[in-house]
UniProtKB/TrEMBL annotation:
Domain TonB-dependent receptor plug: 103-213
Keywords (A to Z) from UniProt: Cell outer membrane, Membrane, Signal, Transmembrane, Transmembrane beta strand, Transport
Pfam families hit by this protein: CarbopepD_reg_2, Plug
Protein name stated in the entry: SusC/RagA family TonB-linked outer membrane protein
The organism's place on the tree of life at top rank: Bacteria
InterPro entries to which the protein is assigned, alphabetical: Beta-barrel_TonB_sf (IPR036942), CarboxyPept-like_regulatory (IPR008969), Plug_dom (IPR012910), Plug_dom_sf (IPR037066), TonB-dep_OMP_SusC/RagA (IPR023996), TonB-dep_OMP_SusC/RagA_CS (IPR023997), TonB-dep_rcpt-like (IPR039426)
Subcellular location: Cell outer membrane
Coiled-coil annotated spans: none
Topology class, membrane: Multi-pass membrane protein
Length: 988
């Protein structure tokens, strides 16, 4: 029996039963605690409990989905306690932008991220925790490179050329357009995340809202003695899936077949292709190149947070250290962060506070090349006789370099973010009572984001001349917001008003210095002036915006709600004639469950709200100055003298360039049934984007190559579904489930106004923005078909073993007219399932996510018999031979894919995303050892993937050699990572 609360003279044993007030059924698992003490227990399956307490003690009864109740222990030793279902979920305050509202009063589509996703998952970026847990928020972890952040798309792609990422706001101050990223925000500091999705919800952010808005609120201080919290985890990482290369014998057979079908010779008569391979083959020496470039990844994170304060001053301070050693050699990431949030009440009418943070990112180190490792023969030579790495392990072939060579370099990649935000709030009602409800708030923010990259290549990578480069860039952003709010109840009527006047300025500058031909490698980037050839370039830009916004919320009797919003934005990057745009919206909601006619079924239908909204939002995501015709200089030598020649750059100016606008309709229903045993939200939406910001190609006779124009129309239609059920809640055991489902259909309505497609950009009217446009493969040409002339009048160039493509145009030849839209790169639908189990102090959370209907070009299959037949990975790839006349795999002939078919494949998958097992030390036990709370957990991420994709992972980036994505090439190919960690959360 737990000890009773000291200070009471008479101790007694209390027995009782806790029941549901609506049906008198016993409630198991109800927590019974002596208020102000440590004595506690839980009810049995029938609701009964026994507890030793002192006379006069106050018992607090709490249970999920029910209102709390307090009872004072008097003379009776037997208690009958009735708990009523709670509508607290509806009373919960939700951040909606420039303020908060009760969930029951929200008229738009606002999704809250489950808090348990934010506390016990080993993620380096909060978006990784959100992935798959919120409907129609498509988060893609295309790269597992330490420190990389995933891409986020809310309710489909609303633009074709402009940026389509969401707008991030942290503690009321925009993070987007400061040069910083969501990776700067330490997940341990986050209190809540809300996602604004529909036109009414995002309209208050006007030009920035068309792609959705993500509001992040960090933790604040609380009144009381200081509370110290430690959160830490450590674990290991490994490749979630490794492509198995062919064996040495299988590779020799491949070489033999490649030489035969292409009529080429093997080295020294065979069986290998080059000198280095031959030596190792003769000596029986082989190398596992994946093992050579891979290692066991290690990740650790430590966070200390301190919060507390008095009635007039509260604080939250945290410091965090993250260290991640990647599974590929040289991929390292460290993050150091510090946050200080303060709130002060200077007088009864004036309060102020800060939300500041400093973060440093370190991505130093040379990195191994996974793609080069995948191309290596097991007989390739890793080291020279003197112990140095070979330049070309398969010499005399010089197409593939040693994948470990980059690890001999030591580039510096550093990034910092210093953000200082503050606010001051004036409550006029505390100055003069007739002004009750009227407040003014000033928000000010400053962000300084410097970045630098220093790199040098010398003899270690066989650059005997030497090459060095220093890249420095920085952005300085100022944000000022003036917010006036008025909140008042008039009987059954409720009105609140929000007015905004804001300005933002961002200055960006970049400088790049390079040097070539150094006397030795000792100088490196530390003295580029020592290079024989030097080059310097720089650029700078200034972005400014000005915004006004007004929002009115009206509610009657908590039944009928109306929201009207209008915002006007101006931004400097648009043409002189259209710098400002206006974005209105309207929304209504009806709390049906509060109607009198719902009384007979109020115990069945606890919540029922219908919402409908329409509004316009914008997109300004084009580069600064791109509406102008700018001049550039080029060196020009005439008469032995060097001069600067001034000319227009390739971009034409457009003084009429204006905002891209997205008009959208949303209707939805929120519901709670059977004492909220089943709750959910269903939304249907349709958006229409016009005046799209398109980079339009121009005829060269104009003197320009392209221009930003307002052209085209785009539609998105979809549905969001979120369902949560309390499946079992008996005794000490509970089981709840949450299902999210999202479907989005994206369609180009118009491009240039002439009804024509843009094949070069893969834009097709009536199809989504991202599509696969290619030939249709119908098999492999067989010898018997070629002998019989089946290819005549179809594909005259076909040979046995080549890819057989459909002649869809029917003109008797295979050409560009036979290409068609085969599918979309974005998924047609996504879903996630979370199951949470608790038994006493133990918890188990299992999360599964699925992505269906996506099509991707498969570089593994496409490259299988290209590049001189070198590819030996993956082993699952076969090839056609006269003896094995496959109808799936092509031959190793250099002419087996002369039309450049890219082998699009189904990229659908279902993933066991994470599993977390946790244990909470009972509070009574923790109190005895002087600790406020202890939670230990074990967690695994990306544990298993079900897919038919042939490659590293259907979601992961896989860039063919020599290509690039977002400015980086195959050097940043990185496998999907599986992570296992042990974590501990302590409260003192």
């Amino acid at each position: 029996m737990l000890s009773a609360l000291p200070g009471f003279s008479q101790q007694t044993t209390i027995k009782g039963q806790v029941k549901d007030a609506t049906n008198a059924q016993g409630l198991g698992g109800v927590t019974v605690v002596v208020k102000g003490g440590t004595t506690s227990t839980q009810t049995a399956a029938d609701g009964t409990f026994t507890l030793s307490v002192n006379r006069g003690a106050v018992l607090l009864f709490t249970y999920v989905g029910y209102a709390e109740r307090e009872i004072t222990v008097e003379q009776s030793d037997n208690l009958d306690v009735l708990l009523s279902p709670s509508d607290n979920m509806l009373e919960e305050l939700v951040v909606v932008g420039y303020g908060s509202q009760k969930r029951s009063d929200i008229t738009g589509s606002v999704a809250s991220v489950p808090k348990e996703r934010l506390s016990r998952l080993p993620v380096t970026n909060v978006m990784q925790a959100i992935q798959g847990s919120v409907s129609n928020v498509n988060i893609t972890q295309a790269s597992s490179v330490p420190g990389d952040e995933p891409s986020t798309l809310i309710r489909g792609q609303n633009s074709m050329s402009a940026n389509t990422g969401p707008y991030f706001v942290v503690d009321g101050i925009p993070l987007t357009r400061t040069g910083g990223s969501i990776n700067d925000i330490n997940p341990n500091d986050i209190e809540s995340v809300e996602i604004l999705k529909d036109p009414s919800a995002v309209a208050i952010y006007g030009v920035n809202g068309s792609n959705g808005v993500i509001l992040i609120t960090t933790k604040r201080g609380t009144t009381g003695k200081p509370t110290i919290r430690y959160s830490g985890y450590g674990g290991v990482e490994e490749a979630a899936h490794i492509l198995t290369p062919v064996s040495g014998e299988e590779l020799l057979n491949r070489y033999k077949e490649y030489a035969r079908i292409n009529n080429s010779a093997l080295y020294n008569g065979g069986p290998v292709r080059n000198e280095f391979e031959y030596d190792n083959y003769v000596n029986g020496t082989t190398t596992d190149w994946f093992d050579a470039v891979m290692q066991t990844g290690v990740i650790q994170n430590h966070n200390i947070g301190i919060s507390g304060g008095s009635e007039n001053a509260r604080y939250f301070i945290s410091t965090d250290y993250l260290d991640q050693k990647g599974i590929l050699k040289g991929y390292n990431y460290k993050r150091y962060s510090f946050r200080a949030n303060t709130d002060f009440t200077a007088t009864k009418y004036l309060s102020a506070g800060t939300s500041t943070f400093v973060v440093a990112h370190n991505r130093d180190g040379g990195r191994a090349n996974l793609m080069q490792a995948a191309a290596m023969s097991p007989y390739a030579r890793m080291y020279n006789d003197n112990g140095s790495l070979t330049q070309f392990p398969m010499y005399s072939e010089q197409l593939w370099s040693n994948p470990l060579l980059p690890t001999t370099l030591n580039p510096e990649r550093r990034e910092f973010n210093v953000t200082l935000n503050g606010y001051a709030e004036l409550n006029f009602g505390q100055i003069w009572s007739p002004l009750a409800g009227l407040k003014y708030r000033f928000n000010g923010g400053f962000s300084f984001v410097p970045k630098r990259t220093n790199e040098y290549e010398g003899e270690s990578v066989y650059n005997f001349a030497g090459f060095g480069r220093i890249t420095n860039n920085e952005s300085q952003t100022y944000t000022i917001e003036n917010i006036l709010t008025y909140n008042k109840d008039f009987g059954l009527h409720h009105v609140d008003f929000t007015g905004l006047y804001a300005a933002k300025s961002q200055y960006y500058q970049e400088a790049i210095a390079t040097g070539e031909i150094f006397p030795n490698d000792a100088l490196g980037w530390g003295n580029l002036g020592g290079a024989s050839t030097q080059k310097v370039s720089s650029r700078a830009s200034l972005y400014r915006s000005l915004s006004q916004m007004a929002r009115v919320n009206y509610g009657y009797d908590s039944r009928y709600m109306l929201t009207l919003t209008v915002r006007r934005d101006g931004a400097s990057q648009f043409g002189e004639n259209y710098k400002f745009g206006t974005f209105p919206s309207a929304a209504v909601a009806w709390n049906v469950h509060n109607e009198t006619f719902m009384e007979p079924i109020k115990n069945t239908v606890n919540n029922l709200k219908w919402r409908i909204s329409y509004g316009v939002s914008g997109n300004e995501a084009v580069p600064v100055n791109d509406a102008l015709a700018l001049l550039v200089s080029n060196p020009l030598t005439m008469g032995g003298q060097s001069s600067a020649a001034i000319r227009y750059r390739a971009q034409m100016g457009n003084g009429d360039l204006r905002w891209e606008k997205t008009a959208g309709f949303n209707t939805g229903v929120d519901f709670g049934l059977w004492n909220n045993r089943l709750t959910g939200t269903i939304d249907f939406y349709r958006t229409h984007t016009q005046d799209m910001l398109l980079r339009q190609n121009l005829p060269r006779l104009t003197g320009f190559d392209w221009v930003w124009s307002n052209l085209g129309k785009l539609e998105n239609t979809g549905i969001d579904v979120t369902l949560t059920s309390k499946n079992i809640a008996k005794g000490n055991f509970s089981w709840s489930s949450t299902v999210v489902f999202a479907h989005n259909k994206n369609k180009i309505v118009e491009i240039y106004g002439d009804g024509k497609d843009d094949i070069a950009n893969r834009w097709f009217i009536g199809h989504p923005v991202g599509v696969i446009y290619d030939y249709t493969k119908v098999g492999i040409w067989q010898e018997s078909e070629i002998a019989a002339g089946v290819n005549k009048g179809w594909d005259e160039q076909a040979e046995a073993g080549a890819v057989k493509l459909a002649d869809l145009s029917g003109d008797g030849i295979i050409n560009n007219d036979d290409r068609r839209v085969l599918g979309q790169t974005a998924p047609k639908w996504t879903a996630g399932l979370t199951n949470t189990f608790t038994y006493k102090d133990f918890g188990l959370n299992i999360f599964v996510t699925t992505t269906q209907g996506a099509l991707r070009d498969n570089p593994q299959i496409n490259g299988a018999s290209d590049e001189m037949g070198r590819r030996s990975t993956p082993a699952a790839l076969g090839y056609w031979t006269p003896e094995n006349q496959s109808n799936e795999w092509r031959s190793l002939s250099n002419r087996s894919n002369i039309y450049g078919y890219r082998f699009p494949s189904n990229a659908s998958f279902t993933r066991l995303k994470d599993v977390t097992f946790s244990y909470n030390l009972p509070k009574a036990v923790a109190s005895r050892i002087g600790i406020g709370g202890v939670t230990a957990y074990a967690s695994g991420r990306n544990l298993y993937t079900w897919t038919n994709w042939l490659g590293w992972d259907p979601e992961a980036r896989d860039v063919p050699r020599g290509n690039s994505v977002d400015g980086v090439g195959d050097a940043l190919n990185y496998p999907m990572v599986r992570t296992y960690v042990l974590g501990l959360n302590l409260t003192f």
